[in-house]
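STRUCTURE REQUEST FORM
Protein name: M42 family metallopeptidase
Source organism: Candidatus Faeciplasma pullistercoris
Requested output: structure tokens
Priority: standard
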Amino acid sequence: MNELEIKYADYAVSKTCELLGIDSPTGFTDKAAKWVKDEFTSLGFNAEITNKGGVLVELGGEDADNAVLLEAHTDTLGGMVSQIKPNGRLKITPLGGMCADNGETEDVRIYTRDGKVYDGTLQLCNASIHVNGSYSSTSRSFDTTEVVIDEDVSSKEDVTNLGICVGDIVCFEPRTKVTRSGYIKSRFLDDKLSVGILLGLAKYISDSSAKLSRKVYLHVTVYEEVGHGGSASIPRGVTEAISVDMGCVGDGLECTERKVSICAKDSGGPYSYQVVTELINAAKKENADYAVDVYPHYGSDVEATLRSGADVRHGLIGAGVYASHGYERSHRDGVYNSIKLLKGYLNV
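Status: completed
Returned output:
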């Protein structure tokens, strides 16, 4: 990467890390959405919070009747208090596809309705291996795990006296780290990394005063993890919608953390042949390191856009992310290649 290219990749990674520091599981996204709005506004673009809580941004452009919509999401996995147990522990229900076996032993924050925040840890029930002879054989689920609150509590009454109630939000510590070799490790790179990528693209457009031949909108959604994030707020004139979400890395796939992935098909079916072809051609034109893959277990915002009745062509790209819905890993090169692909696709 040359100095200019490093500038925008580093900017995107830096902004991603800032956003990862704001807890925002599905249904608890107001602070993250405000941050996103303010960041795009600071770059000189019009941004507004939608009724649903997402952020709609206009990057400008000429052809308003052939507009393109880029979608990413800032909602993440998390939990919600579903029961205060007699022993003062919390049973939680997942928000999105959070898995108990992955979240076990992770630090959490419990947000109460009156603005208090308490620390805790998700643990297996009876978590001491020197006491529990079934520790290794117990199946992990949200029925066999519990949140241990870091307060002096031993009863339901003790917990309710803290102000903790059923319905309170439980946020998992992201543990964000960027290594000297350029790897980005954190929970919830899906999809805050893509929000950072869109900010990097927007900064490039702002700094270079690039002219967009087509009107370009961004929608940072807040309900993707439960399936309806992209189902609203499609601006008039949009003919193409592209999800910028994580690219899958795993057995049988070509993508790595250092590439940008172009999805040809996922669990919702094939993406637009025309759009996928144009994305491939844009990657080649920009000399971006890319892979085309079929994702076996995946759904995206843009499929929610289609199911809402929008008459648009659709596509999906994203920086390669390993260990999705777990402790995820990507790389600055994947960020860089994603920005390059988007630049090529938008002809800026």
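Reviewer notes: The mean pLDDT is 97. The chain is about 30% helix and 30% strand.
Form closed.
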